[in-house]
Amino acid sequence: MRSRVEDFLFRHDILPECIDEEKVLSFFIDEMDKGLEGKPCSLHMIPTYAGLDTAINPGDKVIVLDAGGTNFRTCLVTFDENNQPVISDFKKVGMPGVKEKVSAKEFFGVLADNVERLIDKADKIGFCFSYAAEITPDRDGKTIVFSKEIKAPEVIGLPIGKTLLNELSLRGYDVSKKKVAIVNDTVATLLATKAKVNEVCSGYVGFILGTGTNTAYSEVERNIKKLGLSDDRRMIINVESGALRLPLGDIDKEFVETTKKPDEAWFEKAISGAYLGPFAHHVIRRACEDGIFSEGFCERFKKIDTLSTTVMSNYLEMPHNRDYVLVSIVDNEADATALYQIIDSIIERAGKLTAINLTAAVLKSNIGQNPRFPVIINADGTTFYKTENLEFYTKKYLSLLLKDKYRRYYKIVNIADSPVFGAAIAGCSL
Hints:
This protein is of the alpha/beta class. The protein contains 15 helices and 13 strands. The strands form three sheets. The protein has a six-stranded mixed β-sheet, with helices on both faces. A five-stranded mixed β-sheet has the order 4-3-2-5-8, sandwiched between helices. β6 and β7 form a beta hairpin. α3 (about 105-115) packs across α4 and α8 packs across α12 (about 335-365).
């Protein structure tokens, strides 16, 4: 049975061994280079105009806004005598546009409602905006598209910081000295290392693997050819790595055709939490068609509409717990083993692809050559840490590829409240 399953996975490019790491890595870096040059490619490579040379002083205060997913968070961040960020006056409400469509006026009205209590406490505002946005040289941002079910089409293309300040001005507040820095959540994850990591290193990478996925790293400005810069300073780049048009196998192609936007986010659909479970469902269904499972299992599996990544992961976590959905439909050892092999292979492949992603970011940064000055990778996201074996497989392939082959040295950290701390650092740079 194990040989039959392995043959099935091999034929459909689902075994981790089917991933040619050098080929995928070369493709990844080539797409990154094209994005920096402004050539047609699948990676946006968005310049953020943010760097890592921001000076932080004890007593600095920043109003922090965090628009992520379905929640909008606001707070004040103050840097103490040790330059450590301290959060106060925290508040969380729902994001406008989740339950129903809102106008631009209504959208920025909700944002202003929650900033009013903080507006006189600081002049610098750091805004972690977890949606695709074009960052302008003045550190403002214009929404490119809303994801995560936000329905606010009038906001697309508007300068986020300027429009928010205009709304506050209409309410009678003096905003003449207020400045807003817009950062993506992955960029904020990178910036948070400056606030919370107290060790000597060669640089940082920000990485998120949750419902979706993205990567941020710092690039020498003269390499960002689409901006025409000539400096040797570094600027953080929002890769939008989930958009990589990763070459796919036949089952992957079938699966992406079932998603809402089949021409987009191929890399994300191979590794992220929104898709790993549904992809596993598609693979198991195809395995049933290929005679891998017993008829009884296949009949019971047909009653499951789809799988979430959590349900998929549960089977590996406790494969004998009959309270779990997938365990409950298995009644023989052959089916149980085949199911374990398939799910584990999907997760291991995702771990290998994640390691290639991080390797590309480190190599493109050209850092980490000295083991005494490692690259700090701030990895965030429930999918990365909660999906059974995904973190393990990522670290396995990172060790084989990044450390053993390319002799780059790194340390993975997980900083709580990274979006808040990163946005505070962005605000300090104004």
